[in-house]
User: Fold this.
Amino acid sequence: MTKINTKEQIVKTFLALGTVNNIQIFNAKKEYAVEKAIDRVIELDDMLSAFKSDSEISRISRNSGIGFQKVHEDTYQLIRKAVLFSEISNGAFDITIRPLVKLWGINKKGDFVPFDFEIEETLELVNFNDIKFDSKTKSIALKKAGQSLDLGGIAKGFAADEVKRILKKEGIKSALINLGGNIVTIGKRPDGKPWQIGIQNPLAPTGEYLGVLTVTDKTIVTSGSNERFFIKDGVRYHHIIDPRTGKPSGSSLLSVTVICDCSADADALTTAIFILGMEKGLPLLKQCNAEAIFVNEDLTVCVTPGIMDKFEFKSMTQEVENEEQ
Ligand code: AMP
Ligand code: MG
Assistant:
């Protein structure tokens, strides 16, 4: 879908990466730049999806326990980055999580809860140390048969970084990129003011905000247990799996939003910190030069010092001018 209005705003909405995406550029008659960025997102989806049998990720998974699979440089580097985040998060972020994601099938199998023995069996397949790299041939292998990869916790962030790179290269000075909630802002709003991003109340319908964040040239990414879940016997089962237990993370957080320069980093960080909790997450944020907004179970909000003056707590129904998270 394309919309062009008199204020020289081009808006395109498209489906990719299993979600709805939106790119808006301002004060530039460069529809081709947006098209180029969309083509790139679709290309990345084809390469990185765990659901497309021909993707590089699926080929690595099919070859598990057999041998190395040559991949594109971007896939190689993204998987390296994912493993780096596994290392710094003590294994909370782990892209070998796919067999468990498949077992649970959150939002695909109704309110199915696997037996403990099934979870334990499947956990044997989850270990980022089993991802093997051959830097000479840019090839990747999974050690054990049955292992498989899932880049769902980092791919949208990487794709958002790529959209930003392409738009900036084409001379775009003002843009708002939203890939399924992974937001990247370029420059300032067309009126010269900074962007205002609403931080969703995880327990309320979409569009009800806990506060508003004011930013320029930043990425804003959120992970939360409200994105995909079901409730059974009073327990909320959601899509972020703790590799230590094999179960949806029993996080003390309802959501965590990370603000930094690199959307792939922010994406991996939100998933990891959601599992680890605020206390263990703080050193990770520092290491990555990132800030965060934590929403605790009781809906209290904690903000890191670097963005304290950029986050304004709002009443839950306050309207936000530009974009929501
Ligand atoms: P996000 O919404 O960015 O937190 O990513 C959640 C998605 O990442 C899930 O839908 C899974 O595809 C995948 N995932 C779930 N648990 C993990 C984990 N512990 N480490 C890495 N990826 C995960
Ligand atoms: Mg993530």
The chain is about 30% helix and 30% strand. The longest strand covers residues 9-16.
